[in-house]
Amino acid sequence: MTPEKAAAAAVPEEKPKLNFGGKTERVATCRLCEEARTWAQKGSFCEYCTGAFRRATGHQRLHILFEDQHLAESVRQESKTKRAEAENASPPKKGLEKKLEEFLRRFEEVLPQQRRIVANEVVEELTANCSDLRLILQRDAAQDTACGLLLEQLGKLRATVPASTNLDVPVITLTQLDSAVTKVPLPQEALTAAGYTLTKHSAAAAAEGPKSQQRKRGRRTKVNSRNKKMVVAQHLRKKRYRVFLEEPELHESMSWSTFHSIMKRHFPHVKNPMRQTDICEHCKHLERHLLPAAQRALAKHRLEIEEFSQQYFHPFDSSPATIENKEKTDKFPLLATSLAFVQQQNFNAANSRERQALGLATRLALHSAEASAIHTLKGHVELLEAYRWHQTSARRQEAALEQLASGESLPASAVLLQMDFKENVRYPLSAQETGDEWHAQNKLSLTVFGVFARVPTRTGTHVDVYLLLVSEVLDHDAQAANMLVNEAIALLRRHPGTHWPAVKKLILASDVGPHFRSYENAVKVLNVEVEVLYLAEHHGKGACDRLFAWTRMWVSRFIQKHPIYNLRDLTQCYREGAASRIADDPTTPAILVSNFDPGRFRPTKRSFLSAATLKISRTYSLVALDRHAAPGVRIVNHVFTDLRQGSRVLPCHVDEVVSEEKVEWRRGYYDKPRSWEQAGPEPGDVNHVTRRFAAQKTFLPDREVAPKRSLEEKMSAKAKQLSKHAAKKKRELAEGSSSSASSSSSSSSTSSEKA
Fold this sequence. Notes:
single chain; about 750 residues; alpha+beta; three-stranded antiparallel beta sheet; 17 strands; about 45% helix; extended; disordered N terminus
């Protein structure tokens, strides 16, 4: 739309009349599509243009239509399409004709019976005298059919109810009953007349199907919502309130509450700053340093080469592969292909006509720029390839573990054990901690070892079991890990829900910590085939971390009613938490909690795998056959779990070392009295508090001071604190407004001086 045409259309053009539904009304012209609209409609646009604009942009101001010509044209085309569809649609049928047609459409299965009844001579005679008889007969036949369908649906619903249920659990929910009734072709008015009231909300809920009987907790999920979509969250570098204070245009034009509501409604994907912990160091270097440095190097060398040949990268940029790589979020293919293109151009320099047309000095300078670019970019690409291989390895091992944990690739005679050490639990812990308790937490802690297992059962399936082993031993080395794994296997053997005689293969999954991936840990003495699956460096997340998250929640709840002062208290906390978890969600696997006490001294005998051809830090998958399958030690290195073919590790043998001295396990040590475990003073006791009182009781205050603050004093202190915060906010807003005003006045004075 031209500016002159838009200005002419800005004033609504009044036409004599236009018939809408048989009425003569004043009309106007839509500013966008220039079609007639009702005069009573609000705004300057017709209903079709307004609806198309709302669907395209949401609740935005309409003035942006004329600022974006592409948007205005798309809205205009969609409005014309909707208007044409509305004009070509058949007019709605009204009254009894519409109801009768809908009624006959629903009950076509009863029409043959109705025709036979109506064809009877008596019915023909009655029809001549009673014009409504046909409609009455059709309604009665339809109701009889609907009653039969209703009984059929209720019978199916009754068959789904178990024979015996708990008395406090309803056997049939209202949604299930409504779902059975809505499948019967009866209008809602007929149901209401029969005494069965079904609201629109209940009918919609019944149409969605049965829902889980598990009690919902927390806020409603937004993942499966039809009114929302998944977007990438953007995290600010400052909190939203700090951004509001530092931007004068914001706090001058609106209040904080208005800004907060706008952010929440229109920018929900913009979040406050977030802190990530326990992330992969290699992935962080790749995303934050290596990849940006390679992109900067590529841009720099492109400019240097284009100084001597402006059309140098034109064939590369215009190729479909390059255009596709530029649209990808992964920028490595673009870097690799750019390096390959420069190498190819440099190799074919003698056959290039464009290069031969340049002067000798220019060709030498271009060759030097190409050599510099190849040398620099080759180092970047090789380094990026190594770090990308690390990410690929992590994804391969995680996919293999996920298939095993889900049961897709886990054999029926195999057991999966995924294990990990939790961060040591510091103690003492309580709802009210003293200074001594807080200082003791730096010296006293407990080890928690978690295991997720999928074990065969007597029915030929697998059952999931969680294990928590709590110990005072703080050593996280290969010897301690082997002993903890043996203890976990012993617990699984005794568990009534497992069938250990059916186990023919043991799969151990863990991270690549030195306590798991070591030559000492690779030695196994079980009479089964053993496969070891190592996850990639810094990527050892799995079911054990889910278990550890539960334990943190259990500890925070437990200390509200009972302190944690020792190993026994922490074990009790975990057992109560596991019981409450299973009670809340019966689908939770069994959680076994046990103490682990290896004694005071370490075992004197230690075994190590000796293999000159095996570099254990270069592999993620090892398979060892049991000692009855082949004589000696037989280990196959698959490198990755998804590779079925591996190489035999030869030569290899087991070395045993026996220590003459006994070495104690490392445990927490606290050299001061544990005041939190001691009983309080008894009447008549003398301690430092009573002695201090005896020495100072003659020095009375000027006025009476209560030992503790009263409720009124606490409320007064809180009110004073809130008033200070409010005054601080007002002061910051005033300072921001004054600084913006001074900057605007200085800029205006500078412009006037220049004028």
